[in-house]
Amino acid sequence: MSQIPKKILEEIEKLREEIEYHNYRYYILNDPVITDQEYDELMKRLIELEKKYPELVTPDSPTQRVGGKVAEGFKKVRHSIRMLSLDNTYSEEELKKFNERIKRTLEIEKVEYVVELKIDGFSVALRYKDGKFEQGITRGDGITGEDITENLKTVKSIPLRLRKKINVEVRGEVYMSKDEFNRINQERMKKGLPLFANPRNAAAGTMRQFDSSVVARRNLDSFIYYVIDPESHGLKTQSETLKFLKSIGFKVNPNYIVTNELGEIIDYWNYWIENRKKLAYNIDGLVIKVNKIEYQKLLGETAKSPRWAIAFKFPAEQVRTKITGVTVQVGRTGVLTPVAELEPVQLGGTTVKRASLHNFDYIKAKDIKIGDTVLIEKAGEIIPQVVKSIKELRTGKEKDIEVPTSCPVCGGKVGKLKEDEVAIRCLNPHCPAKLKRAVEIFVSREAMNIEGIGEKLIDQLIDKGIVKDIADIYYLTPFDLIPLERMGPKAADNILKAIEKSKRSPLHKLITALGIPFVGSKTAAVLAEHFKNLDRLAKASYEELMEIEGIGEEIAKSIVEYFLSDKTKEIISKLKKAGVNMSGEAKEEEEKSLKGLRFVVTGTLKNYTRSEIEELIRKKGGMVSNSVSKKTDYLILGENPGSKYQKALQLGTKVITEEEFEKMLKRR
């Protein structure tokens, strides 16, 4: 440490303070005072210095928010004081009784309350020492929780350094916004993964991840509302506590009122029943707290709940109905989803006749049968789902819901791609139910890169019977395209030119485009390099495939089965007839300026998607890997990098920015 120049130590400390200040302005106050570019420059400089002096990296450095540490399990931690849950009520009458009990116990005429929104999230406790984030703990059983410090470090609204160098323990909620919830579920749907039921479950499931880089990618947020031992910080009321929390750097929900009028609380409750959908996050009620901390102490607590606070919950959006049957839907990725057919019922202002049963493991775990009376609710206030069966109302005539043994659309085999996967899928790559997704993959940038063919056009082409398999893309004519919605002669001509251009795509792009199960763009590149043409790959045996580095049993088996299919043979024949390149690289050979160099990419880039920069590297003769190793020549560093960055620092791998990569291309 003594060999490090003093000016470097001072610069690093100053950078950390500046970055934390700007994080506070952006994430807490929503009032940034510098541009994104200026912020990025500060972060880039700090990363640069920490890379040069890795011994100076500290747990509270802003660079440590990226995640990457993988825990083997969560350590048990005892809470400083019990982490209680709240009593709750749904009725105005019970709220009045709560108010009367408080007044009677305190022997006063009116009680001043703080009324806060009840965030539908995941409760946590946060400990700070000398203003630095030291430990984060789950609620657990209220007495003992689990240490999830590394996961909580990735939540950008949780400060790693407070604005005062104090020792303090606080509590609050970590939550997932509605937009983030929808984004993640859309990604999971595309990958054929089970969907999260609601943002609360998604936040809780995320916090239980052992790999903090997974948590970092899910953009969780927080609201903090409680200080342990508030008197030691000179606090006398809950309203003072909220202002104090904000002043030292925490994100505090701005929607609260201080009142001693019960009618005002009820009006506030009714207001949020009507307006909660305008919020970016879910709430399920209000929390009414006695404002004076002195009174809170006098009122005390029961074995489970504080006597000075109550949750005033919104009316439940759940209703009873009966399951009359079950339909199995096959999604674009082949996932078989059971859907309950219901006796029609009103829920959230709409008539509901069908509700999701998620998957067959869910049905088994919840013991749901045809003929059951069930509770249904809207997941994330959108999708109706079956919550539980009411077994007490069974008559003995109920029937088990059977797991399909074949695809209801094509009759093909069904099963799980991985043993630990919940989803059951149709395993036939040519299933008509999967055709739209197959065409989406085929025309995507990672595959044949046919510009102009988007989701809506694909829907029209397939729904009208113009495209019956992926090869039909190459037999489209102006007469097929021009009559379609939002399509004129010029747009049709541009699409046909893009289709013609794609015929010259390199072999690895064609292999990616075929949609062979388990074969993504990286595996496709390995196969193209090894076999040189599609015919050789199509004839490859299981044993030959297993000899290739990076090809495992599942991939080898999947490739062999794919090329044995008569439908596959028909598609390849049509592609050949259309003049699609079946061998080697693209006919327009690129300059191989990166030949022999191995790259890894981490974080979000400004000018490229991940697939775009990887494709560029391959075109220039370079290689792309998923993980950093001693063989890696360069790590390209984007914003919010993952664990690969830490690995690169450990191995001394050359780390370059996106701009440095582009300069490298120009020099070579």
The CATH architecture of the largest domain = 2-Layer Sandwich
Give the CATH superfamily of the largest domain. DNA ligase/mRNA capping enzyme
Strand count, sense and barrel status of the largest sheet are: 5 strands, mixed
Described by its quaternary structure, the protein is: single chain
Radius of gyration, CA atoms, in whole angstroms: 29 Å
| CATH C-level class of the largest domain | Alpha Beta
Give the tally of structural domains.
Answer: 5
Give the N-to-C terminal Cα separation: 38 Å
User: How many E-type strands?
Assistant: 22
Can you give the mean pLDDT? 87
Instruction: Classify the secondary structure makeup into a structural class.
Output: alpha+beta
Helix content: 25-40%
Q: Which stretches of 5+ consecutive residues score pLDDT under 50?
A: 67-71
Task: Determine the strand fraction and express it as a percent band.
Answer: 15-25%
Query: How many helices?
Result: 24
> The CATH topology of the largest domain is what?
D-amino Acid Aminotransferase, Chain A, domain 1
Compact overview of the structure:
The chain is of the alpha+beta class and 668 residues long.
Word description of this protein:
The chain has 668 residues and is of the alpha+beta class. The chain has 5 domains: 6-57, Helix hairpin bin (Helix Hairpins, Orthogonal Bundle); 88-313, D-amino Acid Aminotransferase, Chain A, domain 1, CATH 3.30.470; 318-393, Beta Barrel (OB fold (Dihydrolipoamide Acetyltransferase, E2P)); 432-578, 5' to 3' exonuclease, C-terminal subdomain (DNA polymerase, domain 1); 598-667, Rossmann fold (3-Layer(aba) Sandwich), CATH 3.40.50. It is built from 24 helices and 22 strands. The protein has a 5-stranded mixed β-sheet with strand order 2-11-10-3-9. A 5-stranded antiparallel β-sheet has the order 14-13-12-15-16, with no helix packed on it. It has a 4-stranded antiparallel β-sheet with strand order 5-4-7-8. Strand 15 and strand 16 form a beta hairpin. Helix 1 (6-28) packs antiparallel against helix 2 and helix 16 packs across helix 17 (521-531). It is globular, with a radius of gyration of 29 Å.
